[in-house]
Amino acid sequence: MISNRQLEVFVTVYEEKSMTNAGKKLFMTQPAVSQAIREIETYFDVILFERVGSKLYVTQSGETMYYYAKRIFTLFEEMDSEMRNVQGVREITVGVNISAGTELIRRYIDGFEKEYPQIKVRVKVSRSSVLEKMLKEQELDIAIWEDLTKKADYLIQEPYYKDKIAVVAAKDSPLAKKKDLVLKDLANEPFLLRERGAGVREKFEQLTRLNDIDIEILWESTSTKALVKATQDGYGIAVLPYLLVRDYIEEGSLVELDITDVSLKRNLNIVYHKDKIFSQPLQRFVDIIRADGETDAM
Is 240 within 8 Å of 200 (Cβ atoms)? Predict the structure, then answer.
């Protein structure tokens, strides 16, 4: 088996076109360099260099050997860099809101674990206000959530995925048949909302305040399924992330109300502390998330 040192000697002789100069560069004697080359030639039963007068010429076998030797050294350098970057990284902690936690995070983890099976990805699923506090206290590496209604100067928020809020009703609701709905048309309806601090609720309540509309909140729940079931049974109107009710809308058990006078669009964002130092694995995880940004939920 050829050693790394023998390959290094060969590559240096090839590039210097001189065994004497290669010896000087490697702090070896010229006979030791010649011996290393002969050992490689004997192992493969080839001639790597031919001497014509005082000049050294590379044979076709030498050219082939150099091509593979350089590839081997490049791979070693990449391995060294990769392992040094990974060194000390045993896990990544990600905070996600309900939308991302239910629909998106698993595919990001699956993609990451194919490249870094030795690194655990821990996930905290919660409302945005909780995740924001955890990021501030550096208990999370990154988070994924909807647009913040109030910007925090210690956080960097990078939009990457287009989403929207869906206002949904039972399929037999009279509102489902009404055209040109505006927000005020819903003022007297009972609402089924996520708990306080949930981004989808904060966004919707911000819209109602801006339009000077009071709403009756009949149900509050941390459970999307509970709100969906109550809506299907006709208890009221739910306001939920489109990602979480898309299947119900497509199958016809819920109807999305088209509110024409306000925008219900929003982004999902990659969020991290402005002082966060990214390891190579964490950077790769973020790149995998960004790659999903071409998806448009609407």
Answer: yes
